[in-house]
Amino acid sequence: MSADAASLANLHDIVVPPPVSWWPLAWGWYLLGALLLAALAWGLVRWRRWRLANRYRDLALAELDDLSDAIGDPASRTGALAALPMLLKRVALAAWPREQVAQLSGAAWWRFLDGSGGTLGQVEGARLERLSYGREAGAGLSETEARGLAKAVRAWIRRHRRPEIAGH
């Protein structure tokens, strides 16, 4: 054997160092983790406050579902229709200060509703106004017309925007 062949036989493979461990992490990763946790906590608090602030909406929509079921029954339609204007007023009282909403009636009430959540429509507004002042005003409405009123009330409950109140 030549000297070159013998020296090549004595060589070993290259030794690769072990991979670098992730632990302990650099301080920047801890900072990023803390910021992400803080952002998540802040988001959860904001979401919870929003849900609690809009709980009245969910309750009103659930009550409206019950009224919509009653509208389908001719025997209970008149009573269910008479409850629609009261439901609108209760929802408005839950969202706005009492001093601003409680005294509204007639044209001022309908202007308030149109300005705060989109229009109810002239036909629906006129029918709801008649229902506000007489329980039997809904007796002549067909089921289709009554469901149209319930649909308009549902749209207002979903679309209205609460005023920004100081401190919120």
Helix content: 55-70%
Tally of helical runs: 8
Task: Detail the poorly predicted runs.
Answer: none
SSE pattern, N- to C-terminal: HHHHHHHH
- Main sheet overview: none
Q: Strand pairing plus helix content: what structural class?
A: mainly alpha
Distance between the termini: 91 Å
Mean of residue pLDDT?
85
Could you say which overall geometry the principal axes of the C-alpha atoms support? elongated
What does the radius of gyration come to? 33 Å
Strand coverage percent: under 5%
Structure summary, number of beta strands: 0
Features:
8 helices, mainly alpha
Textual characterization of the structure:
- It is a single chain.
- This protein has helices at 3-9, 27-53, 55-71, 77-95, 98-101, 106-117, 122-133, 143-159.
- It is mainly alpha-helical and 168 residues long.
- The radius of gyration is 33 Å and the shape is elongated.
How do the strands and helices of this protein lay out in sequence?
Blueprint: H1 3-9, H2 27-53, H3 55-71, H4 77-95, H5 98-101, H6 106-117, H7 122-133, H8 143-159
Helix pairs in contact: 3-4, 3-8, 4-7, 4-8
